[in-house]
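Lecture notes, unit on protein representations.

Consider one protein chain, 272 amino acids long.
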Amino acid sequence: MMLPLQSPAATVCILTYGDYLPYFSRCLDSVLRTVPPPRYELRLGFNAAPQAVQMVRDRFQLYPKPITEVQLGTGLFRTQFRTADGLTVTMWVSNENLYKEPMARLMYHEIPLTTEYMVWLDDDSYVRPGWWEALDPLLHDGVDYIGQPWWVDYMPGQTAMIQSQPWYREIPFDRKDGQEGIWFMTGGFVVVRSECLRAANFPDTEFFWKGDTLTQYGGDTLLGEVARQLGWRCASHSDHVLVNVDLEDRHPAPRRGGTGKQFGSDIEVAIN
């Protein structure tokens, strides 16, 4: 039986890939320091990151075992516990790297979101004091899609793929400098109303997220087109939120492969 939630305002999701402990620790600590329980629930996703899992277990003293643990498949399990100050924490742990969209699918939908909003942070993003207070008015105003805008040109075949989706409403594609593309919220920090995620069935992992027309762009770009096609209310927000930065706050973060590829961009920036 799942633990009852105490009507938090939002679900904060943090995803990490591999054991980049300084990044994950910075992101997690920044949330724990700045948002008082039970104003939110916390969902953590671990893609082949055993040291990060152990760090969380140590931090919250999960011995001898957490409150609930459910095996979801070979090398994949979910565990849930509540901290002494009333924060509900749910963890999805995969021994293999499921990549972003399959893990996000679990974090959004395997246990249905009961909060009005989902707040997503990649592990190389983090927040500073005051971010929750700055974000709160947008949540109270019912904005559907919140984040930091970024433009990408669509690749050959991508518009045709979008036109085949059930949420496509024949809204003409945006253009910039004569090229069709989309303004979307960079994936390192995105806030979406939970009902919007459910209505759009996002992310839909029927797509082959690796090796097809989404290779360079991924679901973050697609979410921007979903929002535009369905007429979601959008708002830019960057107050006290740093996205895709290294440990010295340089952007983009030069790790995983030695480059700092910005979400949605085919430009790689090497930072020495």
